[in-house]
Design goal:
Length: about 230
């Protein structure tokens, strides 16, 4: 990847396709990143989001196994990844990365990845990419402002957390991951990130100015897990 800094963005599928494809957000996202392509490389790992969970719920209703439900999520994430690759056009690496542990010869400014294999979320893929390319920071671009001490959708008194250790974070999210699980960062990925001493910044993707603050080492609205 040359001498440029490499940034990993785990892009929530709910931002790409909250229902329909969010064309306006994607155009703004591309325009924003283009400002940094002279000094940085970006890996963008795309999740399945709400559409993924809709399919998985239907498959569960019809008796599909966990593996089959996981595969549908992987396929949806790769479909979303195709949209992101097309968004960046000639700026992007020619293939969707499906195996985050495989070395690639990439001279492009952007490389896009989707899901890998059953049992591993796109959060896990982002950590594997970080390990593979020696990256120590992952930006988890999601649809919430912070990590909270409990689910703010269920508990109005949930408290926002601006900085948290991996040890304390794991006490919030637990140990188990299942296909379609919606949380700030998946438990299995968290364990490996802790071992590798990777820092994760959880940022609401609807507010690109917050990402700009983070990239410029300024105080930002969001949560640091380290």
């Amino acid at each position: 990847m040359g001498q440029k800094e490499t940034i990993i963005i785990s892009l929530g599928g709910s931002l790409v396709a909250p229902g329909e494809i969010d064309i306006g957000f994607l155009k703004n996202f591309k325009h924003f990143l283009e400002k940094y392509l002279g000094s940085k490389h970006f890996f963008i790992i795309v999740g399945g989001g709400k559409i993924c969970r809709v399919y998985q719920k239907a498959l569960l209703e019809f008796g599909a196994s966990e593996v089959k439900r996981d595969w549908i999520g992987i396929k949806v994430s790769r479909l979303n990844a195709e949209v992101i690759k097309q968004l960046f056009g000639k700026l992007a690496y020619s293939e969707i990365i499906e195996d985050p542990t495989k070395k690639i010869n990439n001279k492009k400014s952007v490389a896009v990845a989707g899901g890998w294999k059953p049992g591993w979320s796109t959060d896990y893929c982002s950590v594997m990419l970080a390990k593979n390319f020696g990256v120590k920071t992952i930006i988890n671009f999601t649809n919430v402002d912070y990590v909270y001490d409990k689910d703010p959708k269920q508990f109005p008194d949930a408290k926002a957390i601006k900085e948290i250790s991996w040890k304390d974070f794991k006490q919030i999210v637990g140990e188990k991951w299942t296909p379609g699980l919606s949380m700030p960062f998946d438990p299995r990925a968290s364990k490996i990130a802790e071992k590798l001493k990777i820092k994760v910044a959880v940022i609401n993707g609807k507010n690109l100015d917050r990402l700009e603050d983070f990239l410029n080492n300024k105080p930002f609205i969001g949560t640091i897990i380290k």
